[in-house]
Specification:
The complex is a heterotrimer of chains A (324), B (558) and C (264).
Chain A (H helix, E strand, L loop, with lengths): L17 H32 L15 H30 L6 E8 L2 E5 L5 E2 L2 E4 L3 E8 L4 E5 L4 E5 L5 E6 L4 E7 L24 E6 L1 H10 L9 H11 L25 E3 L5 E3 L2 H9 L22 H13 L2
Parallel strand pairs in A: 1-5, 4-10
Antiparallel strand pairs in A: 1-2, 2-3, 5-8, 6-7, 6-9, 9-10, 11-12
Chain B lengths: L1 H5 L21 H6 L4 H29 L10 H37 L7 H23 L13 H4 L4 H28 L12 H33 L12 H35 L6 H14 L15 H29 L8 H24 L1 H7 L3 H31 L5 H28 L13 H31 L52 H6 L1
Helix pairs in contact in B: 3-4, 3-5, 3-16, 4-5, 4-7, 4-8, 4-9, 4-14, 5-7, 7-8, 8-9, 8-10, 9-11, 9-12, 9-14, 10-11, 11-12, 12-14, 12-15, 14-15, 15-16
Chain C lengths: L26 H36 L1 H8 L4 H27 L2 H32 L29 H6 L22 H34 L9 H25 L3
Helix pairs in contact in C: 1-2, 1-6, 1-7, 3-4, 3-7, 4-6, 6-7
The chains are: A alpha+beta (324), B mainly alpha (558), C mainly alpha (264).
Bound molecules: heme-A (2 copies), dinuclear copper ion and copper (II) ion (CU).
Chain lengths: 324, 558, 264
């Protein structure tokens, strides 16, 4: 099926599901327009015709059983039709074909993590065109919902439960995706770069590319980019995994301790013990943050177990070591 | 509630002359605060809900103002989240649910029945005070940290977030009991206190609407109460019922919440429809076409309303079978709603239509409810809702039914009964001007939101992509026009109170029973218990005397 | 009960009996109204408890083992005693109505006193049950098995973790209300999810307990009015609806007892 053009009402339809959904949408739309014009047209005509200066005495009209039965029963036909189409399409939306390419989607306040079949992680969503893709969605904290308007798909990310959605893209390009279930905000003060974090910013762009490009992208997730040093890669991880929403690198105190001068520092834990920051402690802080909580901070950091692999953690540690 | 019925009641009017008008009988603030007169209680409710509407409206204007430009306009994201939560919660729980039943309904329901009061006057007063206490709890949450959960209080967000969620949920919990007691009181009153001759087939459609509403209030609200109680306990003790981190099920919370809140949307609309039925009859001067069908459709909505709650959860991960069933049942709701719309339209046919401001509100209701209802069908259709869920399309849908429907009906009813309540006429010309701004402003605000939504703009967003900028700006400007309309409206009402000419008993020349009383009515409503000999819309049977004030112009002619 | 008794009392205007509120025409209208009101209220109550029963049903079907294991910690004997006490009090409440109908003021009072006494016994037994749970750390949610409550190793209750009483911790604002303690500890031989069973247990019996207290208040007020001689064979509305309410309280317990105490 071909992609459909955007209209004033709907964004372009870029999946095999979208044409039929759009069709149903427009069917209801035109049905509503006709009903609305009919009903309101009649009402306005009557108001004009029987306005009391023209029609000073009302006339009782008595009953009209066929009419009353008619407008009670006739809608049923339309309702049955739209229910039927809606349901049929819903069934195809919820039953992916057998050979899908599976991507794990994890929502957390306030970013998405995508895990690709080769184990690579990225905050970016890339999918190949023409191939059925299945997203396996879950949440690490509160409810979120994954919403890609051009594909006409949406699914809640419920903690403790997997949700799935699937699509087969019909063209390449970039299109927005959103978090569609309210999930709060990080407060009223902006981050270093002036941006705010929250439900409204838990969005991004999906990149639909050819299979070849997609595979190159997937490959690139597993290590540093060509020519990138380990520490630089670590810095990229810092950006891509959005550590910056809680950790600054210039000494500013945010939701979490700043990383500036972190390595080798003496930290006091909330249980009163002291710790010298070295590799094992950093590793534990990333994988099991609530095990030892730095004094004066809330244990709000999510675990990155399953998100960051050992090489990536090494790179982050290498990066932290550069921050004097 | 037992207190209510048994204490030897000498009647609150007995120390005074029961034939005084209810505003003059008894003076001073205290005589209002301890009154058992349904009319005074209605007026106290009216003042409260108008205050709530004003507060909710101010939050709405702030929300819209923030969205005027991309990025931060006047407040940060956290404040924004609090603003729309309070807007939604105040509008729903403090304003719209009590608006028609508890405020206007309290005033006219016993009069339409030819009764002296509601069945349990003490309970009626109690429910007002419960409302006040609930409102205090809910509003306390504003100053004690705010609530940022959205009016739906979804877990686990609501069990983890900061702020005074507990105070808000307890407030809503308490408000629920106020609503339950009003419903209970009305149900019993309609069963037991109808004047001689007022059999069910002669009950005004407003009362049929109240009857259906009361059933929903009595049966649905307790479920919300227990849900919110569980939520509050979950938050303090970590009960483990809703919070997945403790093993609970967040989707269960949604089921519980919508089991109440879907019937609640019919608790909101059916009273609006009920008023509109009265307005259509009075201002076309003829019987509502298909009276019986319109009456039954209210009950139909009440019953169907209980079995469609899952349509708010199509993407939540409830079972596919449930999803299908809820979608199918949702479709059925269109039928009773359609019956109403078609019958109102047919009522205009061969009427003698008088375009007063209340009638203009009724016509606007017809237009906007039809739009809101038909867009509800987009939401009820499974595949389409997957796309539209939690976008501005939904926001537009429910403002069209709640604001464009119920609030317009409420305003129409307020103006319609205003002369009866206050004994004063208001300035029709200025009222029409305010109607015009409200009508235009409302549609300007919300029509574009449909487009935004179907284009993919999610709701509860503090910020948005550039392509939505012009829609948001347009909508915000619309909200200013709307605000202006309400300012004029407030002026109309204040002016009427201060210097409005006294109203005759029946300024609209209505055949409705409540108009057979004085304006304002005497304490006991009618000098003696009326005997009903005709239906409330039988203009052809009503005597000249009954319609005697008639249209002011008619009076001039006579 | 029939309302006919009131019928002869007041007809026409001006000679209303003192108990007839001004907005009613006849005593039987007033009586029916009150009764209908109470019935509607009972519907509300049933739906309110209904929410809890649904939650119970869902979690029981999801985690039947937890329910079976946890319910062994409830004291069946005490539960059974309370069931009998409440059933008996329902009977005396009904008898009180009967005597009021017959105009036996003294007997009405007697039966009301017995009913209220039963309610008190019920609450005393509940008090012992609750304190026992507290001592064993069998508490809802996060408090479940909290060190300050947790039972001694031999499993016979008593505080072991701390010398400070548990309520002091709560008053000091630390205690089990700390939101971060997400995972409840193991209590005795119970799985951690036992917290959910006890959460439901305390919610359901607690809400019911509140109803018992309210019922006692209503019945006491009815008793007071009876002593004042407000009632007669023509007018005994308050006795009737007070008893109706009490039957509801009883009815709810009839469901709670097997669901909570006799799961296994
Ligand atoms: C007054 C309140 C009110 C009313 C009356 C309605 C009426 C309806 N609503 Fe609405 N709704 C809300 C308030 C209301 N709603 C709110 C507040 C929300 C959002 C809550 C939140 O998430 O915050 C919501 C959300 C909502 C959803 C969930 C959307 C989502 O989140 O994804 C759905 C889905 O089915 C829905 C459907 C309907 C339907 C089918 C009706 C029907 O009753 C409409 C029936 C009327 C008509 C259909 C028009 C007239 C009929 C005819 C002219 C007859 C001819 C018709 C045909 C031939 C088809 N509504
Ligand atoms: C009855 C219900 C009701 C009503 C009437 C309204 C009225 C309005 N609403 Fe509301 N709204 C909700 C219920 C309602 N809303 C709910 C439930 C939500 C969802 C919340 C959530 O997501 O949790 C919502 C969400 C919501 C949003 C979405 C926020 C988001 O998702 O990010 C927006 C945005 O435009 C909005 C705007 C408005 C506006 C401009 C009005 C205007 O119509 C308001 C107009 C009123 C005034 C301007 C008052 C002015 C009054 C005077 C000047 C004095 C008059 C005095 C007398 C007459 C005595 N509302
Ligand atoms: Cu994540 Cu909204
Ligand atoms: Cu709904």
């Amino acid at each position: 099926m071909n992609p459909t053009e955007p209209t004033i009402q709907l964004p372009g339809g870029w999946s095999t599901l979208s044409p039929s959904v759009d069709w149903t949408y427009y069917f209801i739309y035109w049905m509503s327009v006709v009903l609305f014009v009919g009903i309101i047209g009649a009402a306005l005509y009557f108001v004009w015709k029987y306005e009391r200066s023209k029609h000073p005495k009302s006339e009782p009209t008595g009953h009209n059983l066929p009419l009353e039965v008619g407008w009670t029963v006739a809608p049923v036909i339309f309702l049955a039709l739209i229910f039927h189409w809606g349901f049929e399409q819903y069934v195809s939306m919820t039953s992916p074909p057998a050979d899908t390419l599976d991507i794990r989607v994890r929502g957390r306040k306030w970013s998405w993590d995508f895990e690709y079949p080769n184990g690579g992680h990225s905050p970016e969503l890339h999918v190949p065109v023409g191939r059925a893709v299945r997203l396996l969605i879950s949440s690490e904290d509160v409810l979120h919902a994954f919403f890609i308007p051009v594909f006409r798909v949406k699914r809640d990310a419920v903690p403790g439960m997997y949700g799935t959605l699937w699509f087969r893209a019909t063209r390449t390009g970039r299109a927005p995706f959103y978090c569609a279930e309210y999930c709060g905000a990080a407060g009223n003060t902006p981050a270093q770069d002036g941006s705010y974090a929250g439900h409204f910013n838990m969005r991004g762009e999906i990149t639909i590319q050819t299979m070849q490009e997609y595979l190159t992208f997937e490959e690139s997730l597993l290590g540093p980019h060509p020519g990138e040093s380990t520490a630089d890669w670590g810095q990229r991880m810092y950006r891509e995994n959005q550590c910056f929403t809680c950790h600054s690198t210039d000494g500013t105190r945010m939701a979490g301790p700043s990383w500036r001068g972190l390595f080798g520092r003496q930290e006091r834990m909330s249980d009163g013990n002291g710790v010298t920051v070295e590799e094992n402690y950093l590793r534990q802080s990333i994988l099991d943050p609530s095990a030892r909580v730095v004094e004066g901070f809330q244990p709000v950091m999510p675990t990155y177990r399953g998100t960051l692999n050992d090489r990536q953690i090494d790179a982050i540690i290498a990066y932290i070591r550069t921050l004097h | 509630m037992a207190t209510d019925v048994a204490v030897t009641d000498q009647g609150h009017g007995h120390e005074l002359d029961p034939n005084l008008n209810y505003l003059q009988a008894g003076r001073g603030v205290l005589s209002w605060l301890v009154t058992l007169d349904h009319k005074r209680i209605g007026v106290m409710y009216l003042i409260s809900v108008l205050t709530a509407f004003f507060m909710g409206g101010v939050f709405a204007l702030l929300v819209r103002l923030e969205l005027l430009f991309q990025g931060r306009t006047i407040m940060g994201p956290e404040t924004y989240n609090r603003a729309f939560t309070l807007h939604g919660a105040i509008m729903v729980f403090l304003f719209i649910i009590p608006s028609v039943p508890a405020a206007l309904g309290n005033f006219v329901l016993p009069m339409m029945l030819g009764a002296k009061d509601v069945a349990f006057p003490r309970l009626n007063l109690l429910s007002f005070y419960i409302y006040v206490v609930g409102a205090i709890f809910a509003l306390y949450s504003i100053i004690s940290g705010g609530v940022d959960t959205g009016w739906t209080f979804y877990t686990p967000y609501s069990t983890g977030t900061n702020g005074s969620v507990v105070s808000m949920t307890l407030g809503v919990f308490i408000l629920g009991f106020s609503s339950i007691l009003t419903g209970l009181n009305f149900l019993v009153t309609m069963h037991k206190l109808r004047a001689p001759g007022l059999h069910w087939r002669r009950m005004p459609l407003f009362l049929w609407g109240m009857y259906a509403t009361s059933i929903m209030q009595v049966l649905a609200t307790p479920v919300l109460a227990i849900t919110l109680l569980l939520l509050a306990v979950e938050r303090t003790f970590g009960l483990g019922i809703f919070d997945p981190a403790l093993g609970g099920d967040p989707v269960l919370f949604q089921h519980f919440f919508w089991f109440y809140s879907h019937p609640a949307v019919y608790i909101m609309i059916v009273p609006g429809m009920a008023i509109v039925s009265e307005l259509f009859a009075t201002f076309t001067r003829r019987a509502i076409f298909g009276y019986f069908a319109v009456a039954m459709s209210s009950l139909g909505l009440a019953l169907l309303g209980f079995i469609v709650w899952g349509h708010h959860m199509f993407t939540s991960g409830q079972s596919e079978f449930a999803t299908m069933a809820f979608s199918a049942l949702t479709m059925l709701v269109a039928i009773p709603s359609g019956v109403k719309v078609f019958n109102w339209t047919a009522t205009l046919y061969k009427g003698s239509i008088w375009l007063t401001t209340p009638m203009l509100y009724a016509l606007a209701f017809l237009v906007q409810f039809t739009i809101g209802g038909l867009t509800g069908l987009f939401c009820g259709t499974l595949s389409v809702d997957i796309h539209l869920h939690d976008t501005y399309f939904i926001v537009a849908h429910f403002h069209y039914v709640m604001m464009g429907g119920t609030v317009f009906g409420f305003l129409g009813g307020l103006l319609y009964w205003w002369p009866k309540i206050t004994g004063k006429l208001y300035d029709e010309r200025l009222a029409k001007v305010s109607w015009f701004f409200v009508f235009v402003g409302f549609n300007a605000t919300f029509l574009v939101q449909f487009i935004m939504g179907s284009q993919g703009m999610p709701r509860r967003y503090f910020d948005y992509l550039p392509e939505f900028g012009r829609y948001h700006a347009f909508s915000t400007v619309g909200s200013w026009i709307l605000g202006l309309g309400f300012l004029i409206m407030a002026w109309v009402l204040v002016k009427s109170l201060r210097s409005g000419p006294p109203s005759p008993p029946n300024p609209w020349g209505s055949a409705g029973y409540e108009w057979q009383s004085a304006s304002p009515p005497i304490v006991l409503n009618f000098p003696e218990v009326p005997t009903i000999t005709r239906g409330p819309y039988d203009y052809h049977l009503a005597t000249e005397e009954e319609l005697f004030d008639g249209f002011p112009e008619d009076r001039a002619k006579k | 009960m029939s309302a006919g008794h009131g019928a002869e009392a007041g007809h026409g205007h001006g000679e209303h009996p003192p108990y007839l509120a001004h907005h009613f025409d006849t005593p039987e209208q007033q009586f029916d109204t009150a009764k209908l009101g109470m019935w509607v209220f009972i519907c509300t109550e049933i739906l309110m408890f209904g929410g809890l029963f649904v939650a119970y049903g869902i979690f029981r079907s999801l985690e039947p083992d937890v329910f079976t294991m946890a319910h062994h910690h409830l004291d069946r004997i005490m539960g059974a005693v309370n069931t009998v006490v409440l059933l008996f009090s329902s009977l005396t409440a009904a008898l009180a109505v009967r005597e009021a109908q017959l105009g036996n003021q003294k007997k009405t009072s007697l039966y009301l006193v017995i009913t209220i006494a039963c309610a008190a016994i019920f609450l005393v037994v509940k008090y012992f049950e609750y304190t026992h749970k507290f001592h064993d750390g069998l508490l809802p949610g996060r408090c479940f098995g909290h060190p300050w409550f947790a039972g001694s190793p031999d499993g016979h209750g008593g505080f072991s973790g701390s010398s400070t009483p548990w309520y002091m911790h709560i008053l000091q604002g630390d205690g089990c209300f700390d939101r971060t303690m997400a995972r409840p500890l193991q209590v005795l031989d119970l799985p951690a999810r036992g917290n959910m069973f006890f959460g439901l247990y305390f919610m359901m019996t607690g809400l019911h307990g509140v109803h018992v207290v309210v019922g006692m208040a209503i019945l006491t007020w009815v008793l007071w009015r009876n002593q004042k001689g407000h009632f007669s064979p023509e007018y005994f509305t308050a006795v009737e609806i007070g008893a109706l309410y009490w039957h509801l309280v009883d009815l709810v317990w009839i469901y709670l007892f097997p669901l909570l105490y006799l799961v296994g």
